[in-house]
Each structure stands twice: as structure tokens, then as C-alpha cells.
Amino acid sequence: MTEERYNLFGLNRERLEALCAEADGKPYRAHQIMKWAYHQGCLDFDAMTNLSKTFRGWLAEHAEYALPEVIDTRRSRDGTIKWAVRVAGGSAVETVLIPDRGRNTLCVSSQVGCMLDCTFCSTGKQGFNGNLTTAEIIGQVWIANEELQRRGEAVTNVVFMGMGEPLLNFEPVLDACRILMDDLAFGISKRRVTVSTAGVVPGIYELAKHTDVSLAISLHAPNDELRNTLVPLNRKYPIAELLDACRHYVGGLGERRTLTMEYTLMKGVNDSLEHARQLARLLRDVRCKVNLIPFNPFPASGFSRPDAVTVKRFQTYMMNEGYATMLRATRGDDISAACGQLVGQVADRTRRQARYLARVRAEEVA
Ligand code: SAH
Asked: Which helix (H) or strand (E) holds 288?
């Protein structure tokens, strides 16, 4: 049995410096290694010629840059690409690249499945099967970048809006953010790295202590009664507490930065003018913009998408109330890559998934 090697994709600059100091006595070797890997795309220690031969040998024996295996690649008519990658334990998660007028946004997963079970999200239906490591998160970005480099482009924005709740996999997600923003690695600006949360309040306070990446909140309802039914986590952290945390977080960002409130519009559920009125009142003293996402269907979801007029009416109301309100275009739904459609594969099926599949089958028979 060989001992386990360090996967350097999982080490932020500080950790890699510590490893180099220990192995070679010189922390700055980390900078050389990172430049080779992230700037030159060279993952072969033997080719890192400004390191001593002895140290290269040590690295070859004890370290590696290991990527998760891609098991499926799907390309949408609209240019969106979805990869399924194998992660520890034999499960697979999905990552989605969304090219849009010069911007290349990558939507990464942070967990296998999700614990939260929001009623309108298909990821929740498969239950929870574990956390991703930092290396598995960074690996997703590397894979997308490889694709883009062929056209002379790179990932410009990363959003933690794939599978899982990033603030419930705190340390690995934070380390991944650090690597994404590090000039010696991906060098993506903090404005273009976005953590999205269903409302893990302690996680928001903790995040504020360590970083100032952009933050998105999956709100979806303007009052607790409704939000309790859509986002069960709301029973633990109700809206008032969530918005306190939001004000705290945004207070730590530069004056001109804002949070994003995500609001998935579901027909007859949260899409009326009265909901818009409540939402506008609720958010009055939170520095934020609003992102409306018309519901993306999946089998046996029990929800549907409002018509275009209803969506427009909601948007117009919010705009007139002074909120920058974007309508998120549906991308990649022909390859089930749209928000809330990511499912991946779990190695050990959970009970929640079994219940869900039974419901889908029952609906097909009916
Ligand atoms: N757990 C995190 C990260 C997931 S982000 C969070 O909740 O923010 C995925 C985004 O897509 C969230 O805003 C989520 O609420 C939204 N979403 C989930 N299912 C959806 C669906 N079927 N249609 C549209 N948006 C959906």
C-alpha cells in the first residue's frame, strides 16, 4: 500500500507554502509550483525546471494534481455545457458552464446531493451523500477551463449554485474561494465569485469573518409562512434573522457592492403582485438586487412556471420600487442543466431518493 498523496488542487497558497517549507525548507517554492500549474497549465512536477531535482523527486512521490474523472459531457443548443464528474465514494456531481456574451460563468457543486430538501429543487430529492473536497471543487473549474482554453478563453465567474449547500461544507468551499481568487491561481475577482445559500445564518456570519466574496440568498418567499413550506431551513432560521445576517455581510463589503436575492417564481405560489409588494417592503433596508428565476420543471415536482406576463408584472413592480431586478434566462434546459435540475448520481441511494422515484413512477403510471 502506498500512502496517500497530497492533491495539490486542494491546497490554498498558505497550505502549499507550509508543505513546501516542510519538504524543501522554502515556502516560496509554493509560488513557483502554483505558477506552473495555474499559469502554464503544467501539472507534471518533472517539467517544473526551476525546482531542484531532489524536490521534484519528492513531489513526484508525495504529491499530485489529481482531477475528478469526467463521466459524461452534454452540450446544449445554446452553448451551455454540463459535465458529470466522479467524486469520492463513487458518486457523481454536475457542473455547468454558461457562456454569455463574453462572460463564462461556471456553476459548481459543493456537495453530493443536499440536506436541505427545498420542495422545488430536484437536487434535494436525491438526499444527501457527502461533502466535496476543495480539490473536487477546484477540479470542476479546471475541467471547464481546459475546454475554454481551446478557444482562447477562461472561466470568468464562478457561482456556488450547483448541487449542495455551500455554507454546510464551509472549510472546503472557503478554501476553494481562496484558490479561485488567488492571483497565483485563477485570479478571479471577489465580485465574480459568488456563494449562494438557502439561508444558513451562522454560515453567513462565519463567511464574513474570512472573506468578502459575493453572496446570493435563495429567498423565494416574502413571508415566513410561505418560506417555511418552500425552504424547510426557514423554520430554523426565519426571514428576520436571515436579513439581519445579510445586512451584516453586506456591511462588510465595499459601499458599491450588493447582495443578490434569488427568487424562483412558481405559478400560483409566490408570483402574485401581493407577493411582489411584500417583497419590496421586506427588502427595503437591505442593499441588494433581485434575481428572478422562472421555475425550471423536473419530473413530479408539483410546481410549474408562471406565464411570461406574470413574470414581467413581478419584475416591473420590483423595478418601479427601485430594485435592480434581473430575469435569469433559462439556459441549458435541453440537457437538464438549468437551476434546480441538477441531480448527478449517488452511489448509495438514500431513502429520500427512493421515495421520490416511487412518486415519479406513480405519476407515469397514472
Ligand atoms: N443551496 C444553495 C445553492 C443552490 S443554488 C442555495 O440554495 O442557494 C441553486 C439556485 O437555483 C437556488 O437559488 C435555488 O433555489 C434555485 N432553484 C432550485 N430549484 C429550482 C428550480 N426547479 N427552478 C428554478 N430555480 C431553482
From this structure: strand 288-294
